[in-house]
Fold:
Amino acid sequence: MSTLLLQNISSLATMDEQRRELSQAWILIRDREIQALGVASEIPPEPSPDRIIDLSNHAVLPGLVNTHHHMFQATTRVMGQQGDLFGWLRACYPIWLRLRSEHVYASARLAMAELLLSGCTTASDHHYIFPNDVQLEDEIRAAQDMGIRFHASRGSMSVGEGHGGLPPDSLVEGEDDILRDTRRLIETWHDPARHAMLRIGAAPCSPFSVSTDLMRESAALARAYGVRMHTHLAETDDDVAYSLERFGMRPGDYAEDMGWVGDDVWHAHCVKLNGEEINLFAKSGTGVCHCPSSNMRLASGIAPIRQMLDRGVKVGLGVDGSASNDSGHLLSEARQAMLLQRALGDPAGLAAREALELATLGGARVLGRDDIGSIAPGMSADIIAFRLDQVAFAGALHDPIAALVFCQPQRVDLSIINGRVIIEDGQLLCADEPSLVEAHNKLSLSLARDEA
Structure:
């Protein structure tokens, strides 16, 4: 059994039940778990740990949790620049049709590196496009290479343009094939154990790209296996209009009718939920992933996060697809979430510490995890540290935890996942960053130029 002591921590935000913040603190890690923590006056229970890391001039947090992403989109950034959701998707679909296994693997590694460098330690990805030889294992292999804690959602599209859906018919799959592959992935890869590094979810893409039969069958399959369910919901006005025209009901009612509310479900975006739908989510324990940058980029609107939190809805953060955000910096999403709620007119719309809670504990709850999101004995050893002695934080050290959100989001200096050091001195230890970027750019340019 190995032990690691983090000592002389300038400022530690535990996100524990008491939301304690400690100065001159230490954390003792044994293998993959946090064993103990305290302040300088309290002696660690391990007199001679295997390794000591000094974190003077650092702010330390639980690892951030990303609850919605489309990592394959890292190959197609800055496309559909003036499009709303539907227009942007129509611009991207023909390019995504050319995706192959090598693109998905390379883009997942790149997206994971970007997340890791922003302080993310757990990521959920919603992969819903399977052209050519693409499989979800392309992303699973990338996650194992990079050392990130990973929730892989088996997405799907089954209703194309020919049957009233949005995607081209050439990109949709047969529903029996979708369910069969989802079952295979769960049986092969899903780990329900505490501290699990890999879990699988069922994730039909959206109301405008799958049938009601697939929604219901996916829910039944997921619940039979005890895995979580995820989809997009109420993202835009067009999304709501489609639901009203196609199903004769609002998105929240549609979700309830399909069996897609409950403690094992979370929905991405939910920008257009009304008060009744928010109450439904609160009462049923249904989670929401807030994606502020993507919602701004596509002019989707501002999700009513303040109302959701006040009514008890579980809310986490997501960077969303790398082509509808063009960035994968999760700490930046916390900042955007704070600023965007204030843009509605209330300067206290979302506090800095509330934004950090969305990015840590909120994400853990949305993903159904009781082992991540806070720093406390028995929790997974997922811990991040940011240097405070840099230009971005100068003048803000009277409140360094708030500074992480209010000031320019920075690159993480140290990242530990499951007790393993993944980033040290701001450098990835799990991959050669220049080589990763070079390989990804080569594949991305060939895809954009139709050379694949």
User: Anything to note?
Assistant: The chain has two domains: 3-63+374-428, 64-366. Residues 120 and 404 are 14 Å apart (CA to CA). DSSP finds 14 helices and 17 strands in the chain. The longest strand covers residues 3-13.
